[in-house]
Records
---
Amino acid sequence: MARLDVLKNNPDTSTVLGRRRLPDWLRRELPRGFGYHATSRVIEELGLETVCDSAKCPNRTECWSSRTATFMILGDVCTRSCGFCSVKRGRVEPVSADEPDRIADAVERFGLAHVVITSVTRDDLPDGGAEQFYQCVLAIRERTSATIEVLTPDFVNCKASLNRVLAANPDVFNHNTETVPRLYRKVRGRKSDYLWTLELLRQAKRNNSDIKTKSGLMLGLSETHEEVLETLVDLRDAGCDFLTIGQYLQPTGNHLPVQEYIRPEKFELLGNQARCLGFAAVASGPFVRSSYQAREMVLESR
């Protein structure tokens, strides 16, 4: 009864049962087009995970239409408990030896022009899963001409793991910053470190200046505009080439609440400011996610 009273007594409140209402600019139907069902069948047939589908990304049909997809390797169970992420926690799965071949098969069958390889965080593995990233890149290169982006976890300060991934020579190395330094431990958990995130990007660029480096931020967790700008300066100082900025959306009531829904015009302003700072390619908007316009960014930077 009390829960119903909340709705009856506050019909115009910005929260409903403890969760903020979505503003009009974030209301969007999940798309179903461009061979959506056929694509889903192939993914299921090959026993693969895509962030596009599992996270119900509102951009997935747009990305698939531009011949881009994001595959998640090393299972669907994570060893971290980040406050923003809906990936499952629990007993992790053994590393699948044939996963790189299955992903290369999917890239070939879909005719992808750009592929993003990401993963759950695997702190249980000595290399954090770096070898699997390496093998996936090689398998895709052997069978296709797609450009390849890796979106990696932090590898818990293990420089050797980073070097192993970079040895495969991906076209883009991506590691998300996610939020500003003040909120880092709250959002990403006690094992994460803002300075190490910057160092990963810096080392990737030092290792091979031809590899494009990339990072992403999500807004709406109480960060200030000034804090975001300071973080963008840090990223540029670390040699970061590409940037994505999007709206944080609370996956469930057990995750960090949204503190603010950022208006589209503020995303546009931040995108323009990021370009002025020297980022080679920027995607900034409420629906932007890490892999949004990933292929377009590569093409734009050439």
Note: The radius of gyration is 19 Å.
---
Amino acid sequence: MIDLFQPFQIGKLQLANRFVRSATWDGTADEEGAVTEASLAIYEKLGQGGIGLIVSGHVYVDPYGQAGFGQYGIHSDKMEPGLRKMAAAVHRSGGKIAIQIAHCGIQTTRRSPRLMVVSQDPASKREQHEMSDSDIEALINTFAQAAVRAKEAGFDAVQLHGAHGYLLSQFLSPLTNRRNDRWGGNIENRSRFHLEVIRRIRQAVGRDYPLLIKFGVRDESDDGLSIEEGITTAERMCEAGIDAIEISFGYSPNPSSMTTLKPGEPPRAFFRDRAAAVKQAVKVPVILVAGIRSMAMAKEIVNSGDADMISMSRPFIQEPGLLKRWQNNAGGTSDCISCNRCFPPLKPDGRLVVCRKKESSGV
């Protein structure tokens, strides 16, 4: 029987346990993408919660790849002092933190005359710039530079955002990648961007610095990325230098529905079957996220061999110290009901990511 609270290792990174706080947008960065005092307060609490590995909210590597307001940036050396404080806020309590670096491609809400896309989207009314070969090469270097900044700022690891229809998903999915050059077509070409980003990061930060990916292993469409193609890509990414894979979804026409429970529906691990399939194909740790709401469920998943680590986001929004309670009560559960009300619209209205259920109940 595996004890989830025993130390665990990703690459050469030693963690206190097998739990991960999945990357969570919190809306506290300033207009330039810099860390604020509100940001530091969030990570201070998380650091005190006994989580094995905390993953930051997604951080944009380039302004044209910014997802929305309140998002952290790592696109400039000016961001490093704030990011250094974020890492230190977790380290003060003995925790470990990875930074999730991202580019959202066509999904950006940033108003810009230059919308960077993998392929032209005829349904979009915005002016689009389909990336040239030189644009793609430059962006690969941008990811590598971001990883270097992360390492210099004191983060224990880097995680690539390769899920949820963001840029890496857009390269991988035939729904969004309609190129006929070396970056498009068959799965070998569509996965080339992933592999080149990984290799370039490895060249920049060395082999021993932990590199993870949150990976949309399949799309939510019969015409999209198949699970077989996703698994093949996972195998190649590990060969290129990935140390752990967090399993999630790729392109979806309705992303919020992927992890939302209907009223009265019992908790379930949404992507367990996908994690189990990847686990059979790779030798690095597989991390399962979404829908895990009890210690009993977490233990059963890991001991069944379907995943090596348990990742959660919304339960830690509601209760940053959840794991300390679980450690004292093996049958413990989270009050999170996967309603997604904790995530407000991406608008500059000052609303932070908090548990709305908790707010409305007065708890």
Note: The mean pLDDT is 90.
---
Amino acid sequence: MRGVAPLSDTVELQARALAFRDARTLRFDGADSASDGQDASIRFIGRGDWQFDALAYVQARNFSNVVISSTRFVRVLDQRNTPSTGIGGKFELRPPVGDDHTLRVGIDYRRADGELQEEAYSAFSGNLTERRRAGGANTNLGFFVEDDWQVDVLTLNGGLRADRTRIAQGFFRAVDASGGLASETIATDRSDWTLSWRAGAAYRASEALTLRAAAYTGLRLPTLNELYRPFVVFPVETQANAELENEKLRGFEIGLALNPSDGINLSLTAFDNRVGNAIANVTLEPNLRQRRNLPAIDAQGIEASINARLGQFRVDGSLAFTDATIDGRGASLALDGNRPPQTPRWAASATVNWSPKPGWDLALNLRHAGAQYEDDQQTDRLESATTLNLFGQIALTEKLKLVVRGENLTDEPIATRNSGGAIDLGVPRTVWAGFRYGF
């Protein structure tokens, strides 16, 4: 549900609430999985001389999952409760500094906390073998300033951001069936300041051509899963790592936007990025991996897109080539030059949309993802896949619409995991149908 209400001529209140639940059985009888969530947010927008945007939100999530042995077909793990909560907000102010400038000054805050509660069972006796608990809290407080400066046909952009990140309350604890302590990790609380920036320019060379360039830095905190949650996809165990450091990005890009005629837009971008302290699942032994910081992952590539509107038809296409490699040193020297797991070189998408009359929307989409590797050793390969998808929306009345959606209509096998030849498949041919009512 979403509601919008004007508080004055220049101030608007927006409120939003969302709830969902999904339950399904995966692979085997008894392998029941469920996820649910609730979101709420409130936002104030000011459109006067001193424009502002104030946002506050809360998100609650939970997940449960029963793992069934693929050889004995009995319960071996019950991830019965995985609650997590995210809260945050933002305040952004746009002072009136002249028509040539758009200045933004603000602060934002995010906090995520969560906990894992699971029990392991013997595949032979069915008895409880271990109870596990894990969790922690991550916070990020950011201060930012950004300005767009219009100088005739040249637009300059610059931004500066300071982030205070904190990783705290982290733990992992496992006890045996009798309650005796089997394993415990109490992580040290830690915090840090990081300064990041962005600079860019766009030059309108003609009515049809715009040239652009940008350079930037950024960061990403490790997730609570990466820090504290180990998992097993038999026979491979992946350990968490409470000592993971923040990923840090630096990169640049250049590109152009071409508008040769009304309704046709072309875009081409080349980029070069380097992610320091990149987090990956690193193989320690044949059946043992651990989340670790790699020295870096380097990625260079080209992205192209086209958007064209021709009467009742619209065509959208994109093509991406990414040459990504691991920069391995010291303990990770053996990985040097390997591709990061689950990173295809080629990805492409094409969509043809037809709107024969108001309220009707029919679209056919073709999507391709190139071959990639499941692991850092480049031994388990995920083959390329091309899928055909369909979307249809037909107006039955002014407010009531029939919606039909089809995914992977050709039933292409999509490998999402390959662990020594044990393969999981993605969505098979699937069709949804429903109704949408708007008021």
Note: DSSP finds one helix and 29 strands in the chain.
---
Amino acid sequence: MKRVCYLDVNGSLSPDCMHKIPDADLVRGYEVMLLTRHIDERMVTLQRQGSISFAMSSYGEEGCVVASAAALQLEDWIYPQYREDGALFWRGYTPQQYIHHMFGDSQDSILGRQMPNHFGSRELNIVTVSSPLATKIPHAAGCAYAMKLQKEQTIALCYFGEGTTSKGDFHVGLNFAALRHAPVIFFCRNNQYAISTKTSCQFACSDIASKGEAYGITSVQVDGNDYFAVHEAVSKARQQCLEGTGPVLIEAMTYRLGAHSTSDDPSVYRSEQEVEEWKKRDPVLRLSRYLKTKGLWDDDKEKTYLAKVKSEVDEAIKVAKATPPPPLSSLVNDVYATVPPSLQEEYQSLRTFFPEAT
């Protein structure tokens, strides 16, 4: 399948690109990518220091996440996997909110009930991440079908990695959406590795996009590190969904430059030479070069912006470290409308070990 690409590694935009993105949106997209990268780096450091328990980075994949989120409307629903913190920041989630979540403290919107990097926001229509992969694909298809039944002018977008396509939920979700013409975008971040398993060890076909075509779904493959190509693909897919012609599968070819998580050592299964080759296609670097040639960005602006980001993140970490953990009662609240006697009994027993807990 032909891969769509407009922005080369030097930041030059092909004249074939007819898709227009306002300058202000491009600059904001670049700023969100820089913010995402900085916060990811800090979270990995905090995990190594023992301040938080776990961290995952979107290093190298920021372009496809931010560009795709930027092509949506706030009313559209997003089903993230766990590298889509850039989508959160694009929609207005603050570094302070995110860092409270990474600490799992009493100001975390989900009160530490999930691992770090398992974020979500009801206000921003971003469904909380779930550790089991692929389970959200049928959920997104069902959500989109509900939108169709209620005649809402909105769509759902579901993110997942290429390894997730080996799960049965992927095939169930695509088949259901295709049959029901559900307005959903299936967005595959093909970052070449499902933890340590390379794509060539997962499936015999040459791409993911062809799997969508097998279900009668419009499918496209784009350079996931090309901000313009991703933004165009999602914009077109959203319009197609709203026109009622059915779902769209987008395969964004990108690369995970960092480790899968802080529990992973990628040097065991891939070469440094491979990583260095992909660094030349860095989405942040490519968009930076484009913006500079257009006079929309320069080194002074970058220095000023990064200083602002660093100060804000430093302060957010300081606040999170001083924030108490969630109340003990959060263990049993929000599970049932009314806490059942058996669970209440267990909770009271637990409180004997924490006499000051509420």
Note: The chain is about 45% helix and 10% strand.
